[in-house]
Amino acid sequence: MLKKEEGLVPKHVAFIMDGNGRWAKKRLQPREQGHRAGAKKFKEIVKHCAEIGVECVTVYAFSTENWKRPKREVDAIMQLFREYIREAVQDFEKNDIRVLFIGNRSVFDDETKKEMKKVEDLTADRHKTLCIAINYGGRAEIVDAVNQMIANGKTFVTEEDVTREIYSGAVPPPDMIIRTGGEIRLSNFLLWQSAYAELFFTETLWPDLQNEEVDSMIETYYQRNRRYGGV
Ligand code: FPP
Fold first, then answer.
1. How do strand 176-179 and strand 198-201 relate by DSSP bridges?
2. CA distances from 137 to 84, 157, 197 (A)
3. What is the pLDDT of residue 169?
4. With contact defined as beta carbons under 8 Å apart, do 221 and 176 qualify?
């Protein structure tokens, strides 16, 4: 396991959890089983990150584009999400992780919205953060932020204003974005926040991801020379 040596561990790691469907297909199982395995892996990886000293983790659980999937699959992911909300407060207590949801909540029923708010409130005093991106789109996030600022009467905005207004305004931008499943793109994830993130892509399917591979990517991250556009 990585050492919690100061400076070694990034503060914020974001994950695009891709490859659940292929994982299930390889096992001749329905795609929903892949998402179930993905949800289990998600809990493991979030806890591992907390244990090695990562302060914030963001996961891409459902994008604004994912509604185009067959209803059966969408229902299965939403079911996993609702199951998860119910256990989140207790599940992450030991790891001192608070939970925030980023994305457009207007699509959820009142009961789900209430549960989401309850989880956020009950975990608010914890010291590490998990952001779950659900019904999330990076472009929509920026457009929503701009519209909110217009509604607030602004006629001129700065980068700081946008940073404050986006859904994840409360957390620092990700140092690393890790995408599993072999695709090499961001798929509308954290567009504003990813400006200086180090990007990592692995062929490993999300349910197969091991803590050791995360550690190895973090070691590579540490070796990369982060210049933020300077020399
Ligand atoms: C991408 O794999 C994965 C998703 C669209 C859903 C991710 C959801 C979970 C891991 C479970 C629910 C989350 C929580 C927080 C409980 P894919 O289906 O696109 O895989 P493929 O590219 O192999 O088809």
1. parallel
2. 21, 21, 18
3. 72
4. yes
Kindly give the interhelix angle for 31-51 and 211-223, rounded to the nearest 10 degrees: 60
Cα–Cα distance measured from residue 154 to residue 147, given in angstroms and rounded to the nearest whole number: 10
Pocket of ligand 1 (CB under 6 A): 17-22, 35, 38-39, 42, 61-62, 66, 77, 80-81, 84, 132, 181
Active site residue 147: no
104 is catalytic: no
Residues in the chain: 231
Quickly count: other Cβ atoms within 10 Å of residue 50's Cβ: 21
Residue with tokens 């050492």: 3
Domains in the chain: ranges and CATH = 13-221 (3.40.1180.10)
Residue 6 has pLDDT above 70, yes or no: no
Neighbours of 65 (CB within 10 A): 11
- The whole-angstrom separation of Cα 17 and Cα 40 is 12
Per residue in 71-93, pLDDT (tens digit) is 999 999 999 999 998 899 999 99
Token digits of residue 190: 């954290």
